[in-house]
Amino acid sequence: MDQRAPALPETDARTRRRRRLAALGMLLAVLIYGSNFVISRHAVLNGLTQHDLMALRFAIAGVLLLPIFLRPGLRSCGGVGWNRGFWLAVTSGFPMTYLMLTGLTMAPAAHGATIGPGTVTMIGIIGSVVLFGAALTGRLMIGVAGVLGGLLCLGIAGSAGASAATLRGDLCFLGVGLLWGFYPLLIQLWRVDGLVATAIVSVLSLVYLPIYFLFYFRGFDIAPWWVLALHGFNQGVLNVIVGLWVWGWAAHVLGPSVVGRFPPLIPVTGTLLAIPVLGEIPSSLQLAGIVLIIGGLFVASWRRPSRQPHHEQVPAD
């Protein structure tokens, strides 16, 4: 008995350590995803194009994740079938990435960091109700109203500017949210492992490379090698592989009710980093829109919507 007594406290301490590490992992993923808008915006303002960044992103991620894609066999497209693989690639592959990076050539990074996650949340709520029978609560409705109000403020601010470029960039970010919002819904609906889905998206997006080399390739000397290596690591490794793995592991340890509190920190991170790195000071109306979207995300995601009893088989994550 005496030898077995310390086992329970030791197990509890190990559990607490894992949860602390998982929380730190979620913060790391938030930093990766939030700062990506700022880093990508800095890149396109300093010589690299959205096409260069996309080529770096999918060339690196696609090659690194190719073994996972091929493991079930090429004919099965990563084990999900080519029809499902196509839609996964559309919602999270180079079409979505093209819209995001193109938007960053015209609009501030803070807009991308708020409009994208805000629209994703809206799609997620609507999809959960339609596909999985999630119950709409008062908290969710308040959050949705905040996100819609924030998007409206950013739209008015963009249309009132001296140039229509900001508005076009915001429309690109809206398209990002509309596409990206369906990606987690499809993963839940088809019960696809997160890393497998990322491998499918990355490998199928390699189809963009011939287009890039035919029409947009400007040589390997468009920037110093260390700049290309840095952005390649950020795009292909940090955002596609590390962020996904850390987020998935932390979600498993913490559970969906806790994990839902972290996504609203992405626009906070992107907005705050854009001020010192890019010198992007939002106007009063833009700031109001950003605050409304962030507040709406916090309210909507603080507690996951309860599901109807006959939908208990739907995975919580």
From TrEMBL:
It comes from the Bacteria. InterPro entries: AA-Vitamin_Transporters, EamA_dom, EmrE-like. GO terms for cellular component: membrane. It is a multi-pass membrane protein. Keywords: Membrane, Transmembrane, Transmembrane helix. Pfam families: EamA. The keyword Transmembrane helix applies. Its main location: membrane. Residues 22-154, 168-301 form the EamA domain. This is Permease of the drug/metabolite transporter (DMT) superfamily. It comes from Bosea thiooxidans.
